[in-house]
Records
---
Amino acid sequence: MCGIVGYVGHRPASDLLLEGLSRLEYRGYDSAGIAVVDDSEIEVRKRLGRVAGLIEMLELQPVAGSIGIGHTRWATHGEASDINSHPHRDETGRVVIVHNGVIENYDRLKSELAMSGRGFRSTTDTEVVAQLIGWKLDQLIESGRAADDPETCWDALQAALGELKGTYGLGVLFRDCPGHLWTTRCGSPLVVGVGDQEFFLASDTSPLIGYTRDVVYLDDHDTARLGSDGIEVRHRDAGIRDIPVQTIQDEAVDIELVDCPHYMLKEIYEQPESVRSALRGRLNLDDATAVFGGLNADLAEVRRIDRIVLTACGTSWHAGLVGEYLLEEFARIPTEVEYASELRYRNAPLTDNTMVFAITQSGETADTLAALRECRRKGHKTLAICNTVGSTIAREADGGIYLHAGPEIGVASTKAFTSQVTVLALLALYLGRMRHMSFRAGQSFVEALQGMPELISETLECHDRVRRVAMRYADCENFLYLGRQYNFPVALEGALKLKEISYIHAEGYPAAEMKHGPIALVDRQTPSVFVTPRGGVYEKVISNLEEIKARGGPVIAIAGRDDDRIGQLADEVISVPDVPEFLQPLVTSIPLQLLAYEIALLRGCNVDRPRNLAKSVTVE
Ligand code: M6R
């Protein structure tokens, strides 16, 4: 939520900041703004709406300078408006900041600052931070400290941070110390790119691509000063820190749309390759098992696991549900899937040998991070199944498994889901082979996984058929999504995709559970999407489908190839290749992603930037 960029170097800052903001716009697109140090002033340009609008503004009112900060906003405190856009200044104009996060005690701080005579322009929590830093700075100057001494700025900033409660990633400029940019974080991500006599600041690595691959990841309570003399990092408790420069992997580079109209479509079509990447180097054919490099758990520890907790939010939680079926069926380990937002506050009793996996595409989701920290605090081994290399969750977990799906930019998660399911299947194979699974069963599992990228490519051939179905149902205002066993989480995921990008009300249910309430919704205008490929529960799902037909509800079926029976029952059939039941989510989820995409297009919705949403939810 909210994207931050910064630059200190020798190039025109505004061009770099705008380019960086365009790449971070998936984090929020309510408003955008930049501040650039121009001689002894800090020039601010900001406005409601997308980065494109800010670019137009800067064409008319350019700013010169080679140090600056920028922000793209997902509004939390204060409506989306010009005045609430970042950057925000303190009253004197000495301090200008951008902020990602939420200041929980902003109300109290605001009252105190107002009583000391500070006037507020906006209704944001961020302006309170700018005013607080400014107030601390004024006090230091009044006590005789020099405004142009960087140590004064350090002290003003640290004094203000000591009073903040909540989460923040900040970029801070001090007018009287114009050669430097300060940045600090607590609970919100920040990365510093290290170039040749230049530094880049960003909420994630995407704005750095093309400029540098060398990065420094800041930890909570680190504050960094970036200037022509280099980078200096101080930790709140540990003083000056020497932080290693790391190199970003190649996979972080492919973020251009090229010929694709939307990131979501691009990412749907990348799934054969992203699933192939998740499998690469992880199948051991000789032992018919899976191998992982980064679990950081010895064999004895893995063998002792008696319970698994998978914690996540949104789509990643749906992948976790598939994981529950996989782990219980193949590894025979009791598994629970917990909403991270609930687990973090529930004092769930966990056994000593419980292993906790946080599943997350971004590695920055605030609730997932908090749940992981809570479980670590209680002494449990915590591992991450994560896509974003170097993200906070990836760094804080004891170990983990990367998805290697490449950047996912579309707000609606697609390829991350199938990669998460692939990694969870690998995990079930690995843990299963350590326990009860026979060599022969392991071999069949491995062979099935190896075939998946090809079968996903084949599945994508359903796109034309999906487009025709979408045209028939795009005007409906309610949808039901129904599936059983491995396809129940797929039904939930299909409904979420439709909701978030087309704003149609959709509900996912276990198909049999539908009789216990949701069937009351069924009428001729409410399609039911049945995820019903061949498998152990096929006959049962057919009975559920008949129940809907008997009540006049239209049925769209996601079915196996040449399934004549479904052909006669359903109004529409979208067929997918036949695959072993436990891997069906890897194919059945794809027509549902495409259906949501096509319906959203027909309804004129912004597929990659759906209203009210942001790609990574770094607030509670
Ligand atoms: O980055 P994460 O996987 O932790 O994100 C979790 C959810 O916010 C995310 O999956 C969200 O539900 C997606 N927009 C769904 O498409």
---
Amino acid sequence: MSILSKFDQLARTAERLGPADANPLRVTFDRIISSTEGVVNGRNTMLFGTNNYLGLTFDPDAIEASVSAVRRFGTGTTGSRVANGSYSGHRDLELDLAAFFGRKHGMVFSTGYQANLSMLSTLAGHGDYLILDSDSHASIYDGARLGHAEVIRFRHNDPADLRKRLNRIKDAPGSKLVVVEGIYSMLGDSSPLAEIAAIKREMGAYLLVDEAHSMGVLGAQGRGLAEQAGVEADVDFIVGTFSKSLGSVGGFCVSDMDGFDILRLACRPYVFTASLPPAVIASTQQSLRRLRDDASLRTRLRDNANQLYDGLRALGFHVGPQASPIVSVEVDNADLAVRFWNALLQGGLYVNLALPPATPTSKPLLRTSISAAHTPRQIDAAISLFAQVGVEMGVVSASQMRVPLVA
Ligand code: PMP
């Protein structure tokens, strides 16, 4: 027995997924050519699994801002903002984020994961309640585990269940914090936020929305689901990440809550970790500007999402409930999913593989994410490859397709 023996089962599962060059959990990109193309196992590959929704990782202005920041401020901050001080860029980015969301306060974290760890573990303490959608991201669950509040789960996207659960604790003295996501990362579905906001208001709870996958995607100005649903005033805390539409790494929270700044001393995952390096802060600031000023990115993203979603659905694939930049195809079992994933990769298409229990429906998912930078041609090619592999593996049948199989 070794200290790692408890992971034997996990190790066997990982091994069954195949050797390193064919294992979906070990994929390595030899080179990245652009925000939509890379090289895997020496082969040119279309990237359809990046979360790079606006395609800004190669934005020339963002790259320039990043390079210039390295030259002026160095490669890293080498410390925590509380213990070792902030750089002006951290403060400026917080002001920019607060202004973009129309909020008084902004706080930047080293990852989106840490933003959720911080907010969930700190906002709700002893005697308080966290009421989480059951499909919440791991960072939300982990934040709940790190804190001392009582955790209550409600059925995914079910406002009636949320109301029932809040009703049971309505006379309890503690604060109640409801947590939902703008777009859920596995199936691309959105929270019924207008109904959830109404319940939150009626029951006197607080509401935190994680807009990780919806910032830059939803809303006329790209502020996310709360903007699209017209309920920003009901959202007490917005959490988000820089690792998706902003093309870098990091996380944030914005709020109008008086006294918000005390969280800088209270959030352990903020206090006890190093702050983001200047290059990341600078490219994020530039990409936020682009996100704010260039609405055509969102229009293109929406068109691309519709093209991929409609295309895969018409072929007979089992996709999520609504078109969004996350389009996931459900398949019956893990063996089939791994073979399908490998056939796509060999055909020059990279997507994500998500396996239960990380999936909401206990079925494996071939998860794609689309970008404003994909061309209609790339999307057509991806759909064609899905069709070809889907027919070969018996996941869809050529005779039932609502579109002809294109070469
Ligand atoms: N929230 C959600 C909903 C996410 O999907 C993710 C990452 N996929 C995170 C938070 C964490 O973000 P990051 O990758 O910046 O740590």
---
Amino acid sequence: MPKTVQELLDALTVEEKASLTSGADFWTTKAIERLGISSVMLTDGPHGLRKQAGAADHLGINDSVPATCFPPAVALGSTFDAELAERMGQAIGTEAAIEDVAVVLGPGINIKRSPLCGRNFEYVSEDPIVAGHIGAALVRGIESVGVGTSLKHFAANNQETDRMRVSADIDPRPLHEIYLRAFEHIVTETQPWTVMCSYNRINGVYASQDPWLLTDTLRTAWGFEGLVVSDWGAVSDRVAALAAGLDLEMPYSGGAADAAVVAAVADGSLSSEALDLAVTRIVQLVAKAAQRPAVAGPLDVDAHHALAREVAGRSIVLLKNDGLLPLAPDTSVAVIGEFARSPRFQGGGSSHINPTRVDSVLDALVAVCGDRARFAPGFAFDGSDGETLRSEAVELAAQQDVVVLCVGLPDADESEGFDRTHINLPVGQLELIDAVRKANPNVVVVLSNGSVVALPFRDHIPAIAETWLLGQAGGSATVDVLTGAVNPSGRLTETIPLRLEDTASYGNFPGAVGHVRYGEGIHVGYRWYDNRGFDVAYPFGHGLSYTEFSYGRASVNTDANGDLIVTVPLTNTGDRDGREVVQVYTALDNSVVERAPRELKAFASVAVAAGQSREATITVRRKDLAYWDVRADAFVVEGGEYRLEVGASSRDIRSTTTIAVTGDELHLPLTMESSFGEVLAHPVAGPVVQASLETLAGAGGGLLTDEAMSALLGSFPIGRLINFPGVDIEAGQIEALIKMANSTA
Ligand code: BGC
């Protein structure tokens, strides 16, 4: 048997190599037994294991082996806690290892560009720093037990509408600063085993066939060493895909593409090196999987359920609380809403997990309150019997002290595969909220939804808890928070707008005739609302606790790497232990480029005991200060006085400090198209030109004293000064200046 990759490559026929570059079936790679290459299984993901034992599909239709359904990314992200995400990842990895799965297809880290995206529940945030940190933690956790991950969907897969064809048309700055940033963070920090390329096109080119994306960016610029697998069915031309940097097409696509690869190598249109590279990465993946340390089953169902409950409790975002929560002991509770009995705890599609058990809010409340908790469904998911169910619920509400009203989006309203067209709760549920609060004002609204919904009732309801889709232990976790057994600490990773019309991509989502234009540029999520000065229902980063935190004065230093070390004293002024999510935003006034008023750069979830103080230390990485410079085609840190805003949400800044940051040196060569202003700013050419201008001014030229004239000249391309009436300058002089400047700088 061959021992090294090279020996394997020498021993494989071209036909065998071509066949290795697609799956054997839905979930496994091909084996070549004569050479000892075994087959490995890749399966969903991301918030639990979906291993299909029987009929396979990628839409979550057929049942899979029971596995713990942990909170989907929408919830996990709200913890803002990388350490917790890593623990959850480790548990998912362990379940995968027990089931002999080599790669879990996740995490999904695409940016929530619009609340309408049907798959937002599978994604972490509207902000790339949050998505990057939480995603990296999941990768570290899963891979810590020797199971691989697949970072997906690379890239710019921000909608479901026409997802297999649409071109995401994005300018370079938003592409790099918003849509690629989290991928870059995770790839450079964790080197995941695999990256999954997305279905869509980016600026006209299919992700699966894009050499700029898969090779220049992912491998050359970021140093990715693992394997690129296609999303299921994303490849339409495997030869082009292999040439671009894809390694494995999934699932099995019939033999035609294998034959096309063999023919392309034969006629030279695909280099044998490109095919060998893909095969190398596939056999390396198989080898890595073979090294996984043994994990003894069976799955510890109880321990993993307990972890799912812990994460779920930490994911809940208490949006509003006029003092109704936590529920007072001995309160009688009207539990209203079908969601209380039939929880919606995960989203539809390929991530659909067959849970080991499911907790409901109703059962969990009854367990705590006994017969002080009484239930009325209030509505049916299919909208039937509206009036009868509503009046029963209103009657019950009037009899109890407090109402826990569980509303949300039914399965049919959001899923992988389609986008929403509005952000409203079903009309029947809105009517129910109204009717119930009139019967009993002490209402806690508990929301179950995979992405934000409009909350037109929020001023009339004393307490609102956003519980997202919480995974299989969500029911008991919700009751942990309602009763105060868990002090809420979740924060919004996506802004809750007042209206869909206020959202950044409104009018540009989901596009038409094969294209979606990312017209809002860098102003995604809170960046948009802040830039426009729009009011929102609840801002990015918001979330309440049952205790209060006061912030001292933030201070900042630079470490040897140029990273900014921010410290802030934090005091828990209440009488309950709690967690504060400290957020650090930066701003740079008078920047050379357009910027959002503030951008999140770092965060930390900090536990502080009741009455205690602690200093939170948070690192803002220098590289995260960078903007994408379209002239240099690179990230550049601009020099200047940065404002660091430290706070409890994007609109609750508690302490501000500043620091002078030295910028990266930008060497942009001068050309005939360089403006007069750019020449003046150039370290070598500038002083030369300045000196001759001063001579002119001394001779009565007046150029420097005339402000209007210098403003006008400032944007004048120097090449066009030649032969300009009244300017006595020759091409040779400018060429000499440019040459001198470019050779010295
Ligand atoms: C989804 C992926 C998933 C794959 C396999 C695709 O439809 O986009 O996220 O991993 O199917 O189920």
---
Amino acid sequence: MKRIVALVSATLLSFTAVFAQTFQLDVNLKKAGAPVQTTQYGIFFEDINFAADGGLYAELVKNRSFEFPDDALQGWKAFGKVEVRSDGPFERNPHYVRLSDPGHPHKWTGLDNEGFFGIGVKKGESYRFSVWARVPDGGSSTLRVELVNTASMGEDHFLCQETLAVVGKEWKKYQVMLTPDTTLDKAVLRIFLTGERTTVDLEHVSLFPADTWKGHENGLRKDLAQALADLHPGIFRFPGGCIVEGTDLATRYNWKNTIGPVENRPLNENRWEYTFPHRFYPDYYQSYGLGFYEFFQLSEEIGAEPLPILSCGLACQFQNDDVEAHVHLDELQPYIQDALDLIEFANGPTTSTWGAVRAEMGHPEPFKLKFLGIGNEQWDAIYPEHLEPFVKAIRAAYPEIRIVGSSGPDSEGAQFDYLWPEMKRLGADLVDEHFYRPESWFLSQGARYDNYDRKGPKVFAGEYACHGKGKKWNHFYASLLEAAFMTGIERNADVVHMATYAPLFAHVEGWQWRPDLIWYDNLRSFRTASWHVQELYGRFRGSNTLSLKMDGANVTGAEGQGGLFASAVLDGSRIYVKVVNTADEARDIVFNFSGLKKKELVKAAGGVRLSAGADHLDMDNELDHPDRIHPETFDFQGEGKSLQTQVPAYSFSVFVVEK
Ligand code: AHR
């Protein structure tokens, strides 16, 4: 409540009695509250918006194995005498191309690859070109490999060129490094027969930057992986989302197809290829080059607990009304076995079947999997029916694994009300809630978790984002309301154990869904205001909650609270107080710290603030202005049992206080 109070300011106005309209926030330091889980804030990865191939996965060649089903040469431009054949060396990707003499000395045979919206390359950096090849009739054959700018007005097209000699009848992997002399976001990879033009076979044509995240050969785009690490994530959910379910069961995410040598991981149709008729992407497939091994490895490298989500045998329920689209209960066993095998793949000894596969791939140590989700956004009785046998089998074999169930696609309503008790009945450890909701919803949900059942499953707020009404793009105001909502997550850390914004990534030329956390083109990327909100929560996570009240009530943007949302946590001798001001005017605030010994004082130790200014609420960062909105430190000083300050209109502030 607003109050007229006499203040002895600990900061600007020390020892001067002033009358001011202030909001009193009472922080009780007597007792540390619930532990804040290390998994509290994390990331949700789904291959939507070209997040994997064309995004985080650093492969630059599209359709590298000539397996796109509508056209084996989709993404390629063939010239001269090129034949697609299907008895290649990789059983699950059998297609390859044969390049032969075009039959005239002034004709040429070769292939151009267009990449994902072009191939982005940087001047002076090295790119590893590799290809499996053979000379079917024996002897040797010479290839020219180039990165070209087909739009160039220059004397020649190439940014760099190398020759590659292929020798012998056996399939072998060849490699050559390319170093372009120009930076270009839409280069083309060109390969053509030269020299004697001896017939040659090519398979799995690949191009990676040498400089990937942590230097892995089958690696990740460095700037994008860094943007994940910089969030300080505690949990990493993968591989989605609806992609887990598939438009039909045949196209569901099948983790077993995503491990082992990349050359033999079969292609999958990406369910986001045609989900939205207003944004078709007919060349959207999953190479599975970024597969479960890579996801586990990335979790480890960014310090987050892995949280895989597996199909429960239900195809996407938004897209399938016919019950026959789903697996019958009596045919569910292979799906259950997939879940058990995944746990063995992650954690099993190297002597176990799947543990040996992990070791063979280069990680003999277990990945220490603790959490497993079964089903994505499922609903109706068919979901608990399918989930139950999974729970029984996992509990029997791996009682230590914590199982994540779902409350469906809605933040409230009939399915939500039905599924929560069902999850409790089945003994799910966590329930995955999803909410893509407008401003009004976020403004009204500050107290959402304050009265949740403390004895039931914990909450995993597994997909959420503020979708502005009529403003379904990234903008600062939406991120501010996410920050406001997250004060309720923080306050209720005893019941909300995980929260992940969604979706994570989007290519500016390939998106199906927005807003998203991180955007990029072929060379650049930027972190949105929502990213900065997540980063601040991750950075100032703390170890335990602290009670923070205004007139004895939680600060949830409720009537009379001046549009303020607030929460506090303890971190050793530090206290982090988060205050979100959603109002259009600044608010004067006094923090009152109780629970201190008589002579004990607290000391303000600065703060960090995210704000765009009242005139820029619809604005966000963009490729040309990647850092327009970012947190800035502010002056917050003083000592006492109370500290006075002010929060600007439309701002998210983290105050640091020392005991
Ligand atoms: O994040 C995009 C989609 O939203 C997810 O795939 C799905 O779970 C939800 O409907």
